[in-house]
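Minutes, project huddle
Topic: does the predicted pose make sense with nicotinamide-adenine-dinucleotide bound?
PN asked that the exact inputs be recorded in the minutes so nobody has to dig through chat later. Recorded below.
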Amino acid sequence: MSDVQELPNYVDGQWKRSSSSQHLPVINPATAEVIARAQATPAAEVDAAARAAADAFEEWRRIPATDRVQFLFRLKPLLEAHSDEIARVITEECGKTLAESASEVRRGIENVEVACGIPTLLQGWNNENIAGGIDEHLFRQPVGVVAAVTPFNFPAMIPLWFLPYAIACGNSFILKPSQRVPMTSTRLFELIDQTGLPRGVAQLLHGGRETVEAILDHPAVRAISFVGSTPVARQVYARAASQGKRAQCQGGAKNPLIVLPDADLEMATRIAADSAFGCAGQRCLAASLAITVGDARQRFTRAMAEVASARRVGCGLDPGVEMGPVISAESRTRIEAWIGRGIHAGAKAIVDGRGRRVEGYGAGFFAFPTLLDEVNPDGDLARTEIFGPVLSLVHARDLSEAIALVNRSAHGNMACLFTSSGAAARQFRNEALAGNIGINVGVAAPMAFYPFSGWKESFFGDLHAQGRHAVEFYTQTKVVVERWPREVSPTF
Ligand code: NAD
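Predicted holo structure (tokens), as shared on screen:
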């Protein structure tokens, strides 16, 4: 137990162990070893953190935005200097490969960079002389105490979708990271602490459902950003909205990609494999359904079978490994059960990743790539998020039929098309019911200056994470109509 790191909360500028006796173990998914422990923060400690944030807000909101962003200018080089070390922590607690962890850190830093532009992004509107001698202005003011609840699969990037914008807009902030990956956010907050950010502006609280509920119900917390599975996103959205709070809740996904016969098959296969099996399929932008059109079917299926079988699976810290474990033993059991159910319902396993082990890591939670053909497009397998390295194949006669299949999904996080036809791409872009679209791209992750635009059951709310949407979410508009009659200013 001596190697097990104890993870405190960060409240009012200080590291504090929770008084809770409920411990939350952090398990390295490649080895099944407990590597750290956090505690489930109880409601009374959530209250103390929310009060500290509310007190800090009163001063923080008055600090000019140009001064507030100086803390982000200090945070960026700290994150860069420690990015290898943060990537290692991500791999240890989350399982993805070191290269995947490093690129997630980079995507997180990009949000810090964009939020450094808040003085410009916060600018309002003005009209002079809306009527004789009367001017009208729109200002953006911070909302107050805001909180983010984040999932296990991007322990560094997703907290950074929220924190930099929230504080640069003048809010104070509470992060509740996934209890399965709390080490990364602890490391992020150690670096935030080094920026000299005034106490109470950012807090870190560990915990699970009860801690989230205490945050949602706290009267000082005015806005909630959530990323996680659809059922929890829906619950969090409803609970926040019923209390008159702002909420942006990103949910799960079932992302289709269409392969047309005129696509560059070599490129499409490589990109589709990265999308389906990268991060062991545990990405909300992972492709999990490939719809081939016409004679793309045979060629794509054959090529995908080759790359799926050849993918090197192992511990994410080891060189040459292309895919790490899934997050938990339960996840692997769930993924394998879905494969079994799909086969039972008529799908054909072209590559079956069940029941395999990685040498030297016998206890690890490894699920190998799986490719299933002849999947019923209306069956559960084709409609449900599996969140593992499983790609289902479905076939369509033409592009319109393929788009109709895409649009039957309850989710709308991402949809992709592989083609060399501009006209096909244009039709798809216009008709596909998903908020993030990839054309010859398999993980259409918006840059930090674009919103992460999930639709349908992949998102509850209206303003998304990142960029201008984040600025709008974290500010409230104040419209001022102003008249200054000449005659009441006798001094001029
Ligand atoms: P999850 O829903 O289990 O947990 C997410 C967060 O909610 C965690 O912090 C967890 O502690 C908390 N939580 C869990 N149950 C709760 C409850 N009943 N009430 C209140 N809070 C609760 O999700 P996960 O397994 O950590 O992450 C994977 C899911 O996240 C997948 O469905 C994936 O698609 C989704 N995801 C979506 C996006 C997106 O941008 N749409 C991005 C990343 C991940």
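Observations noted during the meeting:
- The chain has two domains: 5-251+458-479, 255-439.
- Residues 255-439 form a domain with the Aldehyde Dehydrogenase; Chain A, domain 2 fold (CATH 3.40.309.10).
No decisions taken; revisit at the next huddle.
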